[in-house]
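At this stage, I put together one protein's amino acid sequence and its C-alpha cells, which the following lines show:
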Amino acid sequence: MELYELINYIDDYLRVNEISDVSINGLQIEGKKDVKKICLGVDSSLEIFKEASKRKADIILVHHGLIWGGLKNIRGLVKERISYLLEKDISLYAAHLPLDMHPEIGNNIELVKILDLSYPEPFGAYHGVKIGFKGKYEKKKSIKEISRKLEKSLSAKVECFNFGPDKVESVGIVSGGGGSAFEDCIKEELDLFITGEPSHAIYHIAKEAGINLIFAGHYATEKLGIISLGKNIEEKFKIKTEFIDIPTGL
C-alpha cells in the first residue's frame, strides 16, 4: 500500500491533529513510499529500529516517538537514530496521547476491557484533556483479584497498596506515568487508581485519602494500544504487522 494512504488513515482514526500533545504525533520520519510490512513498538530506540530492519519493516509505529516539542539539534544519539532510519529508508510514526485516550483501541480502554469494568467514561485530566477511563464493577472485587488479572494479562509484576476499601467498586485508570491524574480519584471518590509507573508523590496522598493504588508498569500498560492499532490496520488493509516486544520492566 502507499505510505500516505496508511498515514492519513491513522491520523484520522486517532484524531492526531485534534489533540494537543508534547509529542509530535504522526509521521516523524519519512521512508519508502510503498509499505508492505509494518512493525509496532512502545519506545523509539536503536534496538527496535535494528530489529525492525531485520524483519524488513517499511514503517515502525510507536507510542513514544523521537520528536518531543521539536528538535533543537540533530547530534549524538538523536543523529544516530535518525541516520539509521534514513539509511534503511524506514518510516517512523508516533502516537502518544491520541493512543492513550482512544475510545476503541487506546491503552486505557484496553485496560478497562481486561478488567471487565462496566460503564466506562473518560477520566483523568492531563493539561485539561481526559486521557484515561474510569469504570465500575457490578459485583465488587478484591485488590488481590484485580492484581492477579493484571499480572496474567500484562505478563508483568504489579505493585499494590491497600489504602482503601477491601472490596473495590469504582476504578480510575491512566496508563504509563499517569500519577498526575490521581487528584481526580479524590474528587470522584473512587476506590482504586491504576496507573503504570510508581509515583512517590501520590503515596501519602492516596493513603490519607483512603484510595487503593496499583502500579502495573509503564511499559506493560502502554503496549496495549499499539498492539490493538496493529490489529485494526491488519483488518482494514489486509497487511501484515508485527509487535516487537522490548520490555523495560519499568
